[in-house]
């Protein structure tokens, strides 16, 4: 059982991210988001953010995972699906436990876009899109490695852009996305260890 747990290094990095996230004062960033969402960022940039955000949505991720499993690599598909499923359950559990409202609840003047509202149901902390981005795209980047530079860097860029897109849309605070990324990182490492353990112990 202990072999399946993330390493000490992983736990330290995750704890550091969570510590930073939990230490950020929400209301300062609510003000920053208010400025962003009320004209300081052009509407076409927010349109781009909507498309990028969709790359971390559950429906899109499931479609990609099915394609990955059927057409590219079954083992990788199973690994990422495992991380995605367990991570999704953990994310909803934490959201209900912390019960942090969306930014526009804290500041009614803060507005998102129609698609932003559509993809931002329930509570805000931690960010599910950010968690999916790190867990899924990070796992894929690790798998392809630097030998396939185009796929590797594309995955890494998407992994960073999804959390940023959630901030631009005003549906999360940095606290939310940092915590989501930290949990996604831990989930990715745990998923990798589980797959490695099952391969070494097929019985």
Fold and architecture overview:
The chain has 203 residues and is mostly helical. It contains 10 helices and no strands. The radius of gyration is 17 Å and the shape is globular. The chain starts with 7 loop residues before the first helix and ends with a helix. 37% of the residues are buried. The N terminus is likely disordered.
The end-to-end span amounts to 15 Å
* Weakly predicted, low-confidence segments: 1-6
Structural class: mainly alpha
Percent of residues in helices: over 70%
Q: Work out the oligomeric state of the chains in this entry.
A: single chain
**Secondary structure tally: strands:** 0
Q: Tell me about the biggest sheet?
A: none
Q: What is the overall pLDDT average?
A: 76
Strand content: under 5%
Could you state the order of secondary-structure elements as H and E?
A: HHHHHHHHHH
What is the CA-atom radius of gyration, in angstroms?
Answer: 17 Å
Number of helical regions: 10
Q: What sort of overall outline do the alpha carbons produce when their principal axes are compared?
A: globular
Give the tags.
203 residues; mainly alpha
Layout of secondary structure:
Blueprint (H helix, E strand, L loop, with lengths): L7 H16 L2 H15 L2 H12 L3 H15 L1 H25 L4 H4 L7 H5 L9 H17 L4 H20 L5 H27 L3
Helix pairs in contact: 1-10, 3-9, 4-5, 5-8, 5-10, 8-9, 8-10, 9-10
Gist?
The protein has helices at 8-23, 26-40, 43-54, 58-72, 74-98, 103-106, 114-118, 128-144, 149-168, 174-200.
